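User: Run a structure prediction on this.
Assistant: Running it now.
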Amino acid sequence: MAKINLRPWREELRAEKQQQFVVMLVGAVIVAAGLSFLWKTHVEGQIDYQESRNTYVENATKELDSQIKEIENLRRQRDELIARMQVIQDLQGKRPVIVRVFDQLVRTLPDGLFYTDLKKNGDKLSMVGMAESNSRISNLMRQLEESDWFSGPNLTNVSAADNRRAGYSQFNLSVNQETPKPENEGEETE
């Protein structure tokens, strides 16, 4: 006998395939949602990591900027201190010079002559004095020219003194101050 299937098998097959399709579709949606969640979590983690790196770089930059400012302040202070030290060294180096200048002024001063006023402007020394005679003034000029500490004496004025110093002549003289070089400069030491 022939078997006849009277059940609606095509509808059942269609319903079963439709159910499989829905299950597969729901599974695909769940897998897609899971993958998108994992991808989103991964991207957010990378963004957070990059933001933390950016924050670290910004903080390090701020720290370096403050260190640079501190270094600039230290350099400025160092330059100021060096300038001060240079001034002090210059003063220390020139301190014995004025003593030598006064010593040379006394050594070159002939008898019968004295100074009433001394002024120093840079390397130029201006003198006002009294002399018994003009020959003593010329003797002073020769001695100043021969000195290692002075050069170019220039007599600007010789006049008779006031009544209190009868017989004396007043003179105005200027001379350039020189700093003699040490005798052993330029010699080689063995």
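Strands lie at 113-121, 124-131, 150-160, 169-177.
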